[in-house]
Every structure is written in structure tokens, then in C-alpha cells.
Amino acid sequence: MKERSPSILILGGGVAGMAAARSLKHQDLSVHLVEEQEQLGGKAALWSCMATDTCKNCGACLSQEMAREVAEQANLSLHLKTKIAALKRTDQGVEALLTSGKTIVAAKVIMATGFSAFDPTELPSLHWETSPKVITTAELNSLLKEEGLNTLLGKTPTPRIAFIQCVGSRNRELGKDYCSQVCCKISLRHAQKIRHLIPDTRITLFYMDLQIIGKEIRQTLKDLSKKINLVQGVPAEILEDPDTHGVTMVTEDRTTQSRIAQQFDLVVLSVGMAPALGLIETAALLEVVPNGWGFFNTKDAALTDDLYVVGCAKGPKDILTSAQEGKIAGTKVIEDLGLAKNPDMKVAVLGHGPQASRVAQAVAASGYPVYTFGADPDTILPRGSRSLAQARILTLDGTAGEFSIYYEDQGKKETLSCGAIIAAPEPCP
Ligand code: SF4
Ligand code: SF4
After folding, report:
1. pLDDT of res. 400
2. Domain assignment of residue 189, given as a range
3. Is the CB of 166 under 6 A from ligand 2?
4. What angle do CA 129, 131, 132 make, to 5 degrees?
5. Number of folded domains in the chain?
6. How far, in Å, from the CA of 86 to the mean position of ligand 1?
7. Which of 186, 189, 233, 383 yields a CA-CA distance of 20 to 30 A from 58?
């Protein structure tokens, strides 16, 4: 590939790194994406689909779509199964030596190194190492993906499964007194999926606090509230039968001041997120230090003039938020390098009357092709823009930066792919 200038180095090929790469695809840049694994997608690519009768909007399938697109990106060089051997600032930029032997001098570095799951061997009282009936969320995910849950549960007609939340999070003794943000969502989606597959499963979820931000997950909790047992508090003790590996959980009932022992066929440890291995060491090469938990939290994407941080390298977050942060960082790199925005990005303006016309003209004046839905058909728009005054929107979907609007115009069904949608209703009189 012809070497262009300047170069951008992206560390990490998960959704955040791929989203950053994608947002640079129309630029005259040489984008280098370095990923330790042999394929793109990060942990999201390993995630099983959480859909039951409907999609749960977990974002996992987004990673496959992004990986296909990034692999074909013309201005991108992919360095799979590769690590950073050395990294230093020079007068020309950040010089990175890859384990493949290649040297890249980058104007900007985007750190999208993801996270490591908490290692449950740090809490031996949970018996993860010794009992095959105690597994982590990631292991449950693999079982669901490979349809292996029934095999593990055996012929039990009404299996009893316990979820223990906040394993390795909200724990001051471990130096991890932060919330991992996503594990409540994941456990609730897992519980819903298991009940969908094995309706007679009896599920108990032990929690400290439930992080249920978002309409979809609140609905999931509402749907599950009469189907699973929610117990506030973590078990006081977990006992394992060394012969049968059966697990007994002892909880304290604060009202009756009594101890209750319950047996389970499977215990799922909802492990939290920790900084990615090697993240701190890599960042130290560029003389940046993390917060007390090992993450690089910044208000916006830029940590320094030449270093941007996105996704779980900043702190725990879900797939869709990581993708959004990657895209924002890419856009910031474009701005900081003083490059022109993507001239091909279409913007849809929805609304009737003069307000929609004014908004459409203002956006068009910034150089973007505008598609108006409902605005006055006489609105003067530059070439490349289109007025769809009579079109009827059927549905729309997508995420920040990549929307699809399905519409019908003069009896014909069409799709518009656009980077932004602006709703421009008439102000109230
Ligand atoms: S977003 Fe999640 S639940 Fe929906 S289809 Fe994709 S993987 Fe399945
Ligand atoms: S998301 Fe839920 S399980 Fe995870 S740390 Fe926060 S409160 Fe605990």
C-alpha cells in the first residue's frame, strides 16, 4: 500500500478501535491498526447473541459487521497477531516498533486496548478454581454460544442457577471500588436468555445494587421480576461439596437474623472489568499515568496532543458506548489535524416548514449533502442534496454516525445511509 502522510496508529481491534478506524476511512491518512489477536472484533466478537423473541440491542453483532468493513478499508494496514515492542516520542511523531519488526511514525495514537475480565482466583472463597459448577459470565456466554448449557446442567428438570454480582467490582479491599457498569445488564440478559431456552430454570440473582440505566434493560428487569428471585446482598459463605461439586450458598436474612442455606446446580460469577493487561506499561512509554484504578479516564477523547483514549481503556462501558467513543475520537483526530470532514457524509433533516428549510440550508452550507424529509420542496439546496418532501419514512435504525432511513417515495421503497439525522420541528407558537 502507498504510504500516505500522516500516519495514525490505533492500538486495539475491538469495537472502539474499529469505530475509530472507520471514521478515518475517507481521509488521506495512513491508518495502522495493531491487534494482538489473530482476528478483529475484540471481546464483543466472542459474545453470544442475547436475542430471545426480539433483539436485545446488545451490540455484539456490530463487531462482525465492523470487522468486515475495516478489513477492506483502503487506507488501513492491519497488523494482526502483533504487539508494540517499543514506543517513544520523536520530533517526527510517536515512533512505534511492532513485534513484526515494522516501525511506524504516527502523528496520533488512539489507545483502544479494551479491558481484562477480573480474575476470580483472587477470591478463592468463591471456589471458581476448584468447582466445575462455579463459572464466570464469559464462561456462561461460551456455553450459551456453543449450546452447551444443558450438558453442564445434566438431566436436572428444574435447574437452580445463582448469579453473584459485583465479583471484583465495588470492592475496596481489592482496590476496585468502582462499578463495572455492564455486568448487571449482562446477567439480566443472560437470565432472560436461559429462561427462554429452559423455562423451568429457577434463577436467583444476588446483588449489591442494580445498574439498570436504559429503557431496554429496565424493561428486561420488569419482565423478569416475577420469574427470577432477586436477593439484595452477597452470600455470606459459599460451600462446595468436594465429592459432588454441588454448591451451597449461605445467606443472612436480616429481618429474621437467621442464616439460610440454598443449593444450586450452577453459580455464575458476574466478574467485573479490569484494565487491559499491559495497558499501563504501554501508556508509561508515552509518560501518561492512569487513575487509581488503572484506567485512563479523560473528559474527551484526547489525553495529550498526540494520544487519544477510547472504550474500556477509559473505564468500564458497554459495546455500543465503546463504538461511539471510537467514532468520536476519530472525528477529533480529523479536527486536530485540520483535515476536511468527510465530504460524502449525508445528513438527513426531518421536519416541516421554514424551520426545517433553514436547518437544511445551514447544514448544506457546511459542505454536507443534505436530504430533507418534509421540508418545503422549494428550499434551495446545493447540488448533491435532495428534497424528499413527499417521502414517507417507514423506519430507521443505526447508531451514532451510521444511520439507515427506510422510506417510500412515489411508491418506491428506498434506503438512505447517512451519518447524522437532525429533527427540526417547528417551534411551538
Ligand atoms: S444486537 Fe445483540 S441481541 Fe440483537 S441481534 Fe445483535 S447480537 Fe443479537
Ligand atoms: S454493573 Fe452491577 S454487578 Fe457490575 S459492578 Fe456495577 S452494580 Fe455490580
Report:
1. 63
2. 120-273
3. yes
4. 105
5. 3
6. 38
7. 233
